[in-house]
Specification:
It is a single chain. This protein is α/β, with parallel strands linked by helices. It has one domain: Peptidase S8/S53 domain (Rossmann fold). The chain contains 5 helices and 7 strands.
Length: 152
């Protein structure tokens, strides 16, 4: 499960369920350059503190709300589906490429997904900034080697 951390910056703690870091992957927001968004809460001690793009995310809106069909929005709740989509993408890939069903099931757990996400992060200001292109710009052999290393 992925959950938005909060949009209260340093003024509040990480919101539940994102604060349940053993069973939930909390998602913080970054700007387009990977820097912490002003509204992202402080890092949670003893946690991975994942972050991904959450500012100026182009979103579609129902026309009856009279806000226009597309808008740019910001928040950890906009970063969260980007993180979940990244996770779904990598799980689809490992299900296609890895024959070991037990290993694939392990990767689909919260702990396993955290390992997979960490394989494509860089530490920035205490946050694990998820950069999917670090993994995907390689060929299959190198991608699988990086994934296997995460579980060694």
């Amino acid at each position: 499960m992925f959950a938005a951390t909060s949009n209260d910056g340093a003024n509040a703690e990480i919101a539940f369920p994102a604060s349940a870091h053993d069973s939930v992957i909390g998602v913080n927001s970054t700007n387009t350059w990977g820097g912490k968004s002003d509204f992202t809460p402080n890092v949670l001690p003893f946690s991975e503190n994942f972050s991904i793009l959450g500012e100026a995310v182009e979103s579609s809106w129902p026309k009856h709300l009279k806000q226009g069909a597309r808008q740019c929005r910001s928040g950890t709740s906009y970063a969260t589906p980007i993180a979940a989509g990244t996770a779904a993408n990598i799980l689809f890939y490992v299900r296609m490429k890895i024959d070991n069903e037990e290993r694939v099931r392990e990767m689909a757990t919260c702990r396993g997904m955290k390992k997979l996400l960490l394989s494509m992060t860089t530490l920035t200001g205490g946050y694990s900034y998820v950069r999917p292109w670090v993994l995907w710009r390689k060929d299959d052999e190198d991608i699988l080697a990086q994934i296997r290393t995460s579980f060694a």
